[in-house]
C-alpha cells in the first residue's frame, strides 16, 4: 500500500472515530432532552393533581363549614321563636279563658232577665254576685308589637368579597423552585448536602431538607433551619439516596415547592470506634463512645476500628456529655495504634486536650483553643504539603520527609500548623483518651 493510501486510510479511521464520538455525544444530548421533557411532563402532571386535590378538599371543607354555620343560625332562630311565642301562647290561653267565662256570664244574665217573677229576684242576685267575682274591669295585658321579637338574619356581603379576594390570591404556580441543591459531597458514612437560593426576591426564613432511599421508602425530615448545608449521617455506603430541599418565606407558614431531587451516595465506610476497648462503651453504630466507670483508674486510648480518615476530609468530634477534666485527656488523629499508650499526647499523633491545649508529636504548642465543654465540636482538616520529593518515584511507602498541614477548629477559633512525619501516609487512625467517666464523643 502506498504512503498516500495509508494516509487516506488513517484519515478515514480518524473520521469514523470522530463520527462515532459525535453520534455518542448527540445521543447523550437526546437522552438529556428526554429527561428534561420527562421532568416537565411529570412535574406538570403532579402539579395538576395537587391543585385538583387541594381545591376539591377546600370545596368540601368550605361547604361543610357553611352547612354547619347555617345549622347554627337556624338553631338560633328556632330558640328565639320558641322563647318568644311561649308567653304569647300563655296570654292567648288566658284571654280565651276570659272570653269563655264572659260568654257563660252573658248567657246566665240573659236567662236571669227572661225568667219569671217568682224566681227573677234569686236569679238576678246570683248573677250579680257572680259578675262581681269575675272582676269584669280587669283585663290581661297584651304586649305591643315593638316589644315583641321580630326575628331577622344579618348577612354581611363583605364575606363574599373577602373570600373572592383570598381565593383569587390563593395558591401559585411556579416553573422553578426558589431553592436548589447545589452540591452533594460524600463523607464517611454520610453525605454533605449544600443548597442555594435561586430566586433573589424570595426572602428565606428557614430551609427544610429531606432524604430517602432512591429505591423505596418515604422522604423524612433531616434538617430545618437557616443554614445552607447539612451533613446527613448514618447512610449505608454504595446506596443511592434522593435529597430535596424547600424553603419558608419570612412571616409565612407554608413551605415553597420542593427542589428537583438529586441522587447522592457515599463510597466511604463510616467512622467507627474499635469495640472491646477497656473503659469505653460504644453505641450500636459504633460512632459514639462513652467513657464508662468500669475502669475508673485505668483506660488507655480508644482508637478507630480502621484508618478511615483520609487527607482532604473533615473529621468532626461532637461532645454530647462531659466528665471530670484531666490533663491526659486528648482527642485527635495518629499514624498507628499503640495499645499501651495512656494518651494521644505522644509521637506520631496530633490532638487537643479537654482544656484546649494542642499537642503535636507529644509536645504542647503555644497556641491554645477554647476548653472542650458540652456541645463542643472539634474538627480536624489535613492536606499534604510536599516540600521535597518523597522518593525518586514519589512512592509514599518508601519514606522520606512528609508534611501535612493540619487545621484544628474548636468553637469559633482554629490553629493551623505543619505536621512533619518520617514516612508518607494516605490514611490515619483517630482516637480519644479520657481519664474520667461521663464523657461521650460522637465522631463523623
From TrEMBL:
> What keywords does the record list, in alphabetical order?
Coiled coil, Cytoplasm, Receptor
Residues annotated as domain Fibronectin type-III: 177-270
What does UniProt give as GO cellular component? cytoplasm
Against InterPro entries, the record matches this protein to: FN3_dom, FN3_sf, Ig-like_fold
Protein's cellular compartments: Cytoplasm
Q: Which residues form a coiled coil?
A: 2-36
- Could you confirm whether the keyword Signal appears in this record? no
PROSITE patterns per UniProt = FN3
Family (UniProt): Belongs to the cytokine receptor-like factor 3 family.
- Quote the function comment for this protein: May play a role in the negative regulation of cell cycle progression.
Listed name of the protein: Cytokine receptor-like factor 3
For this protein's source organism, the top of the classification is: Eukaryota, Metazoa, Chordata, Craniata, Vertebrata
Amino acid at each position: 500500500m502506498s504512503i498516500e493510501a495509508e494516509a487516506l486510510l488513517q484519515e478515514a479511521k480518524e473520521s469514523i472515530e470522530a463520527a462515532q464520538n459525535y453520534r455518542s455525544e448527540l445521543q447523550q444530548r437526546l437522552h438529556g432532552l428526554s429527561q428534561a421533557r420527562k421532568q416537565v411532563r411529570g412535574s406538570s402532571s403532579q402539579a395538576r393533581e395537587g391543585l385538583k386535590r387541594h381545591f376539591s378538599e377546600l370545596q368540601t371543607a368550605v361547604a361543610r363549614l357553611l352547612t354547619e354555620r347555617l345549622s347554627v343560625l337556624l338553631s338560633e332562630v328556632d330558640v328565639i321563636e320558641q322563647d318568644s311565642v311561649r308567653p304569647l301562647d300563655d296570654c292567648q290561653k288566658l284571654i280565651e279563658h276570659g272570653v269563655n267565662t264572659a260568654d257563660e256570664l252573658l248567657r246566665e244574665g240573659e236567662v236571669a232577665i227572661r225568667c219569671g217573677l217568682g224566681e227573677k229576684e234569686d236569679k238576678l242576685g246570683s248573677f250579680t254576685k257572680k259578675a262581681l267575682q269575675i272582676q269584669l274591669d280587669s283585663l290581661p295585658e297584651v304586649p305591643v308589637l315593638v316589644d315583641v321579637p321580630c326575628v331577622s338574619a344579618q348577612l354581611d356581603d363583605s364575606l363574599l368579597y373577602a373570600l373572592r379576594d383570598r381565593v383569587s390570591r390563593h395558591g401559585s404556580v411556579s416553573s422553578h423552585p426558589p431553592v436548589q441543591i447545589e452540591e452533594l459531597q460524600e463523607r464517611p458514612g454520610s453525605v454533605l448536602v449544600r443548597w442555594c437560593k435561586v430566586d433573589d426576591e424570595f426572602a428565606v426564613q428557614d430551609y427544610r431538607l429531606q432524604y430517602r432511599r432512591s429505591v423505596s421508602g418515604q422522604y423524612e425530615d433531616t434538617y430545618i433551619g437557616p443554614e445552607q448545608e447539612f451533613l446527613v449521617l448514618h447512610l449505608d455506603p454504595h446506596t443511592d439516596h434522593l435529597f430535596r430541599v424547600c424553603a419558608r418565606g419570612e412571616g409565612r407558614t407554608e413551605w415553597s415547592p420542593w427542589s428537583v431531587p438529586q441522587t447522592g451516595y457515599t463510597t466511604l465506610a463510616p467512622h467507627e470506634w474499635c469495640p472491646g476497648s477497656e473503659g469505653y462503651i460504644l453505641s450500636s453504630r459504633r460512632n459514639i463512645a462513652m467513657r464508662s466507670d468500669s475502669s475508673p483508674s485505668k483506660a488507655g486510648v480508644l482508637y478507630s476500628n480502621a484508618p478511615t480518615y483520609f487527607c482532604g476530609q473533615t473529621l468532626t468530634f461532637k461532645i454530647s456529655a462531659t466528665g471530670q477534666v484531666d490533663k491526659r485527656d486528648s482527642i485527635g488523629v495518629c499514624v498507628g495504634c499503640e495499645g499501651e499508650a495512656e494518651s494521644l499526647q505522644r509521637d506520631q499523633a496530633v490532638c487537643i486536650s479537654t482544656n484546649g491545649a494542642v499537642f503535636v508529636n507529644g509536645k504542647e504548642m503555644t497556641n491554645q483553643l477554647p476548653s472542650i465543654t458540652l456541645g463542643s465540636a472539634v474538627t480536624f482538616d489535613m492536606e499534604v504539603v510536599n516540600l521535597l520529593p518523597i522518593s525518586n518515584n514519589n512512592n509514599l511507602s518508601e519514606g522520606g520527609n512528609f508534611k501535612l498541614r493540619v487545621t484544628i477548629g474548636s468553637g469559633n477559633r482554629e490553629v493551623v500548623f505543619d505536621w512533619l512525619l518520617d514516612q508518607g501516609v494516605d490514611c490515619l487512625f483517630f482516637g480519644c483518651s479520657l481519664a474520667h467517666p461521663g464523657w461521650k464523643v460522637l465522631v463523623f
